[in-house]
Amino acid sequence: MDDDLSQHYQGSPELLMFLASTVHDMKNSISVLSGTLEHLLTNVPASAAAPVPAAAEPAQYQQLGQMLYQTRRLNDSLIQLLALYKEVGKPGYPFDPSPRSVRELVEQVEGQARILLQSRGIAFDTDFAPDAIWTFDEELVIGVLVHAINNAIRYTRDRIRLSVRVDGDYLELRVEDNGDGFPPAMLAAGAQAMDVRDVQVRFSSNSSGLGLYFSSEVARMHRHRQRTGAIALENGGDLGGGCFVLRLP
Amino acid sequence: MTAMVQSDGEIDWGAKRYLIVDDFVGIRQLLRESLRNLGAKHIDQAASGGEGMMLLAKTRYDVVLCDYNLGDGKNGQQVLEEARIRNLILPSSVWLMVSAEKSVESVMGAAEHQPDAYIIKPITEGVLLTRLNRVWIKKQIFSEIDQAYADKDYLRAARLCEEQIPVNPLHAIDLLRMKATLQLKAGDPLGARKVYEQVLEERDYNWARCGLAKIMMHDGDVEEAQKMFQAVIADNRFYIDAFDQLAHAFKLQGKHEEAFDVLQKAAKLSPNSVPRQRTLGQTALKLENIPVAERAFRKCIDIGEYSVAKTVDAYFGMARVCGKKNDTKEAIRLLNAAVHQFGGDQVTLRAKITEGLVYHETGDFRRARKSGDELEAMLADDSRHRPDTATCLDMATLLFAVGVKEAPVGLLCYIARNNHDNVPLMDELQKIFDKARMGDEGTELIRSSRKEAADMMNKGVLLWKSERLQEAIDWMRVARHALPHNMRILFNSAQILVSRLQQTGYVRELADEAIEVLMHVDAIAPGQPRFAQLMEQLALLAPVSGVVAAAAASEYEAANGAVPDR
């Protein structure tokens, strides 16, 4: 199915077919899992005010939310592993930048995060120029932002904010939370991810290393007139907690 | 038709008809649930590509959500191609291709039948709705342009693109891309080149680089074009259009080995393209690389089986391969299969030519001569159409080789009459005469044939200039009958008809005649500026813009086969 996989496995079409169909299966399973959980969560409101059946216990609602969160983490990791396998950042990676509406980008990110955030009682704010147009690979940028939001869920108290603004020659996208901020080790890993002298995935660190590597490679693939995209992790921002920043030329 | 669209215009997705094609029942249920939440009531489902095709044949869906990976049988791309070519989906329908991961197909550049959008699992309602709205708005912006394109009124379509650009900044790049395509179709490569250069100042889009390089290649700047295609490939290993074009650039430089290497790489990246496998097979055959030619033609036949792009060329190529392997029996079997499956005068004629070539190459001169005699008999029947120029040249070469004389001379004179101002082609004809040891005789034959055509054309022009339009029209009908493939005569003929219409006002019969002539000339020589100009003048004359031309165009295609798009 995927021709780029054949580049690696020219000698073994069976392995290639096996990998392709396994990925397909896993994605199907994750789709059904997260779709079903979202469905259950929407039909079972958190407020016990509504007269609902026994299943609507707050504890069960929270457990469903936890399941959705873990499913999304699985999905993130699968996307990132696949990107790593397909050599994200190299000429063989399917990179497809086009002019996109910032409003539609925010809509889609919000659409993916809304139910999960609701289920965990986290408020979600957005702030963007609705008429802005920018050129980027939408699928990859959505992947990076959704991952940043899933990550912020771990650090926030009760609020996450996605803001997008044009800053001179760059589009700046920020995912901020109102928690206690990223621990120093995380900030250091963030700085390292953009260090040009040290461009490789930190397998030694934990799974957040993979996410950072993926995000930094996606940023780096975006190039325009000698300018290159970048990511950064900071503490502070409008909500006083951790901030993930993606800048695209 | 309102082309200006408010981006916040509400669309009633509940009233649309939907088709879901996925082999996994869980996904079908999930998608159905999402669509119901959008208010949809009419939702059909298919578990395989075949089942999907059956439903598509029965119902015109507004939205199709089709998984790319459908297990055994057709994949999503093949379902889309077949549905488009069999006209089972309306131009206004939305096709969303669902896949498990970011696919290389989306960035390959030349996949002829792109879906309206790709969408990656897991699909949430928000993403689905955003994509549906986006595609719908884009279709509104392009609807009038697409209609003018379908009517082959390329100049108007290009102007419509221009009008839309300032009001639709989000689609400016797509509109520019379309404008360049239209300018190329209208025979205005200079205009298209300016558009590509303008786009490239903004950003290095691969399609613009390839477009520019194609024009450079056409202008004879082959080496520069080659470098540009190579640069595109270096940036994007999957940009398949650049591979195909690079192979062409090598061929133009006579570097057949290099072209062959590039084609092999392209066929490896994207093996399921009938035209690509055919080109690979023909190039391999030329280089006498029989194993590769065999594999390519075999693959071409296999994928053609389930594809509307099925081609008889693969059978002829395969027969040649068998001939080279001294297996005449298999070659003849393939030729019979080709005639049986495809039918028609042209195929029968070409099968006979290939048969002669195979016998000739395997040293069976007696049978080769017999094929030649049979060909001669076929040609004697004037009621049959002559094949295209390349086939005629092949046939004349073969007939001379097997010792037939009169028929190939007739063929070569026919080509000379129909292409009287094409000097490089005349040189080719002379070479064939030289090889048959008829050099001097050939020179004289070519000269008189060309004069015959020029005289016919001049008589028409004279009548036209002296305002005897009705006589000019009558004379051009005679000329067209005698020289059915002469581009100059065809264009002049259409020009005279248009002049007449401008004088008398719109007359249905004359307009239809002009359109038929123009469709024919566009089929044999696409991308001529005169075609675009005359089509535009005709469209202005028509009482209902475009509609008449479109109807006549489709009538022409129904009677004579599809007019090639490129």
Distance between the termini of chain A: 33 Å
Q: Which blocks of ≥5 consecutive residues of chain A have pLDDT under 50?
A: 1-11, 48-52
* CATH C-level category of the domain at 13-144 in chain B: Alpha Beta
Say how many strands of chain B there are.
5
Instruction: For the record, give the distance between the C-alpha atoms at the N and C termini of chain B, rounded to a whole number.
Output: 28 Å
Structural class of chain B: mainly alpha
Q: Tell me, what's the shape of chain A? A: globular
Counting DSSP E segments of at least 2 residues, the number of strands of chain A comes to 9
Strand order of the largest sheet of chain A: 2-4-5-9-8
The number of distinct helices of chain B, counting runs of at least 4 residues, comes to: 26
Q: How are the secondary structure elements laid out?
A:
The complex is a heterodimer of chains A (249) and B (566).
Chain A: H1 3-8, H2 13-43, H3 58-85, E1 98-101, H4 102-119, E2 123-128, E3 133-136, H5 138-155, E4 159-167, E5 170-177, H6 184-193, H7 207-221, E6 223-224, E7 227-228, E8 230-236, E9 241-248
Parallel strand pairs in A: 2-4
Antiparallel strand pairs in A: 1-3, 4-5, 5-9, 6-7, 8-9
Chain B: E1 17-21, H1 25-37, E2 42-46, H2 49-58, E3 63-67, H3 76-85, E4 94-99, E5 117-120, H4 125-150, H5 154-167, H6 172-185, H7 189-202, H8 206-218, H9 222-235, H10 240-252, H11 256-269, H12 274-286, H13 290-305, H14 313-324, H15 328-342, H16 345-361, H17 365-380, H18 389-401, H19 406-418, H20 423-435, H21 439-465, H22 469-482, H23 487-504, H24 508-524, H25 529-541, H26 547-560
Parallel strand pairs in B: 1-2, 1-3, 3-4, 4-5
Helix pairs in contact in B: 2-3, 4-5, 5-6, 6-7, 7-8, 8-9, 9-10, 10-11, 11-12, 12-13, 12-14, 13-14, 14-15, 14-16, 15-16, 16-17, 16-18, 18-19, 19-20, 19-21, 20-21, 21-22, 21-23, 22-23, 23-24, 23-25, 24-25, 24-26
